[in-house]
Amino acid sequence: MSPARNLQAYDKNPKASGIKNISGWHKKTGDPDMADATVIDGKAFSETLVQQIAQEAQKIADAIGRPPALAVVLVGEDPASAVYVRNKIERTTKAGMRSIEHRLPATTDQETLLALIAEMNADDEIDGILVQLPLPDQIDEDSVINAIAPEKDVDGFHVVNAGLLATGQESLVPCTPYGCLLLLRDHLGSLSGLNAVVVGRSNIVGKPMAQLLLRESCTVTIAHSRTKDLPEVCARADILVAAVGRPEMITGDYVKPGATVIDVGINRVAAPERGEGKFRLTGDVDYTSAAEKAGAITPVPGGVGPMTIACLLRNTAVAAARRFGVSIGDI
After folding, report:
1. The pTM is what?
2. Is 194 within 8 Å of 256 (Cβ atoms)?
3. Catalytic residue among 41, 127, 153, 155
4. Contact predicate 310/321, CB 8 Å
């Protein structure tokens, strides 16, 4: 088997696929006699994944006469979105794919954006379409998401893809939850029979994450800010996925000893110790206290974030292969 990840074999049987655990290590900050807790290194994993995707992208290019193409639309000048889009474009090019960028002013109306989407839907040279969220207030996000052709919906947010995922059928899966799943498989192998709690019920992360874990035969609970006795609910989880959007909300009191903690959150919080007006990035998990009890944990940054972009590239390659009937058994 190639040293690059054979993802098809990995999807079916992580242990038998020949893929080694690539996680790093982190010394716990509590009792020095306690065993080390594994830091799940999403950055390293994503780099290996992108190498594999690049190989499959080349196969597609050889078959159809061009590389897979991803079109990204940014409306407005939100700084975080602009950075994210730039990173997506850079990684797309690195994977040997074509990147197409549309930047629209914040005053763009919904009709104009929908017209652009219709144009991209009809363009046979475009395999994947991503409209960066959030959108300005005058544009309805659901209308935009559902205007994208499902076969080009590389974010996996279209109601058709959501329905296919929920019913166990082939679909384009939302990137962040799929990236989380790959990290969990890499660290744990089989997830069958494990108790999983997903804190957060968004259409983008929480709900599809729960569906993916159900597909792995986990026993899944979706919790949220109104869940009664939330710390107790979380403390029963073998797998705890935090996607609630609140900085450092999930503390060590929420973590079962030895649990695997996946922190989806990325929040900018004030860091006056670094100087006036300075910020730091933090997740939805209080890393220090959670790492005292967890068996494994993703850091922020460097955990789930890089996996999201890598899985976007995966979806783009998969979308191109499906559209043109190209066999790429490794993804």
Report:
1. 0.88
2. no
3. 155
4. no
